[in-house]
Amino acid sequence: MRVEMETKSCKNCSQNFEITSDDLEFYKKIDVPTPTLCPDCRYQRRLANRNEWNFFKRNCTLCGKNMVSIYNPDYPGPVYCHGCYWGDGWDTLDFGRDFDFSRPFFEQYKVHRFTVPRITLTNSNSVNSEYTNQASDNKNCYMCEASNNNEYCLYGNWYQTCKECVDCWTVKECELLYECLDCLKCYKSGWLHTAVDCNDCFFGNDLRGCSNCFGCVNLRNKSYCWFNEQLTKEEYNKRLKNVDWSVEGTQKNYALMEKLRLQLPAKYYHGGHIVNSTGDYMAFNKNSHFIYNCYENENLKYGQDAWVARDSMDLTEAYDNTLDYEVEGTGWGQNNICTSKKWTGSDVYCSELTFSSDYLLGCVSMMNKKYCIFNKQYAPQEWKTMKDKIVAHMKSTEEWGEFFPVAISAFPYNDSIAFDYFPMTRDQVLAKGWRWYEKPKQGYKTGGDILGCENGDCVGVGAFKLHPTEVEFYKKMKLPLPIYCFPCRLKTRLARRNPRKLWKRNCMKCQKEIETSYAPARPEIVYCESCYNKEIA
To answer: Strand runs (DSSP E) across 173-288, as ranges?
Structure first.
């Protein structure tokens, strides 16, 4: 008889969570037990294994060269610069070890992951862009993450083929943008949220094909509009000349745009072209649920920042995955379970930093390898026999199917991206047995290109330095210098995006039931897609 649903209590937060019949079929298909953590805690655990924004200066363990790294100076293991990591001066198989069946898997893996050399950060084929991570093919970029093929971009996440964009999040094929979120093919604009094919637009929300619009919301193919009021070109330019571009002026205009936004309907999710899917910031998805910032997926559940996945669950920062489960920072492969930082490869289990490698278990920093366990080489049949034996052992210790515990992460909690999405105090982190990095106290003298952060609850170090490219950008765009440091600006930018959670409520026009990231207590007028499209047509 088919079991329709199972309810479990999360061993981390103690909240009950449901496992559907489809979930049970998936777990059976890939031969893992049902999870012990709820979806949110599983996501937090994966994020705790990922550092995106925290950079440090340290020396390469092999050659001694000073380098930029995502591993703070207290990290106890070896960290190699790019030249050494990809060079032939070391052999990853030299770190091979036997598995001890008298001890739990993760207890042994903790020792292993802090013993094998790691790459300082992931940054390839880039010029003058050393402060970029999970990035490639960039030129003159600074503090950009998960970004590729950009020029002169700063302080952003998921820039793709952009030029001169600063303080943005998820922008593609854009140029000269400032403080923009989720934009495609936009030019010379600022403070936009969800815009496509727009230019010379400022302080806008959900715009398509617009130009020369200021403070506008929900417009399509419009020009010379001022807070949704149609003006002539002459009237528009006259008002634009009188705009106060100071920090106080921009804050006031953003607040006015927000006031207008709350007076007009909002579609229950950001994106489009979905079939039987739930989540937010999504497009071209089919039969996918609880997905966020996800595109072109089919049969994906619990995905964040995942693209082109099929028949998978619990993916974070992933691309082109099939039958994968509980993975983070992976791409181009299938049948991977509880794995991190894997690019091109299949049948990789409980491993990290693997490149063009297959049939691995418990491995770290493997390049072009097959049939290895804890970095030790095996013959194909021997590998399968040993792998099955270790999986059986992990099932007995209730470790099989579980992602790396936060307690053994390579990153302290406050260095990881989990700290941004699941903030916790130092005492809360230490109470769980997780690590915390005490950043050295430094006194910074302000003046010149060093500014003091004016946020009274600064989440950075209280001061920040202006980058030369950044200064040139502000001059070109005729914008004021920022008054908050990058960590504080990042925190504000994340708060502008809807949370990665869903609530059941009804369309406020037709009463159709919807699942949305707009919580019921929020002030927005939330419509289903059909009602929204009729409203703005």
So the answer is: 175-178, 181-184, 187-196, 202-208, 211-214, 223-226, 229-230, 265-267, 271-275, 279-286
Residue 29 burial by Cβ neighbours in a 10 Å radius (0-12, 13-18, 19+):
exposed
Q: Are 51 and 416 in contact (CB under 8 A)?
A: yes
Q: Which residues contact 488 (CB under 8 A, 6 or more apart)?
A: 453, 455, 458, 459, 460
At 92-119, the pLDDT tens digits run 999 999 999 999 999 999 999 999 999 9
Distance of alpha carbon 175 from alpha carbon 160, whole angstroms: 11
Could you give the angle at the alpha carbon of 266 between the alpha carbons of 262 and 269, nearest 5°? Answer: 135
For residue 179, give Cα distances in angstroms to 190, 259, 479, 482: 6, 18, 11, 11
Collapsing DSSP to helix, strand or coil, 138 comes out as coil
Buried b (16+ CB within 10 A) or exposed e, 172-206: ebbbbbbbbbbbbbbbbbbbbbbbbbbbbbbbbbb
Measured from the Cβ of residue 41, the count of other Cβ atoms closer than 10 Å reads 19
Asked if 29 contacts 21 with a C-beta cutoff of 8 angstroms, the reply is no
Give the Cα separation of 356 and 336 in Å (integer).
Answer: 13
Q: Give me the percent of the chain exceeding a pLDDT of 90.
A: 94
Q: Give the C-alpha separation, 136 to 83, whole Å.
A: 16
Residue type at 327?
V
The span from the CA of 141 to the CA of 155, in Å, is 9
- CB 465, CB 391: distance < 8 Å: no
| Paired strand residues for 272 | 283
Contacts from 74-81 at CB under 8 Å and sequence distance 24+?
74/412, 74/437, 75/410, 76/114, 77/113, 77/114, 77/115, 77/116, 77/117, 77/118, 77/410, 78/115, 78/116, 78/117, 78/118, 79/117, 79/118, 79/119, 79/120, 80/117, 80/118, 80/119, 80/120, 81/120
Structure-token pair, residue 244:
């106060």
Q: What is the reported pTM?
A: 0.95
d(CA 196, CA 185) in angstroms, rounded, equals 6
Question: Do residues 369 and 360 lie in contact, with contact meaning Cβ atoms separated by under 8 Å?
Answer: yes
Neighbours of 472 (CB within 10 A): 12
> 168 with 189: CB under 8 angstroms?
no
**Region 27-36: what's the mean pLDDT?**
98
Q: How many CB atoms lie within 10 A of CB 452?
A: 15
Q: Is the pLDDT of residue 396 over 80?
A: yes
Helices (H) and strands (E) in the chain, counts: 12, 38
Closest CA to 390 of 220, 346, 162, 378: 378
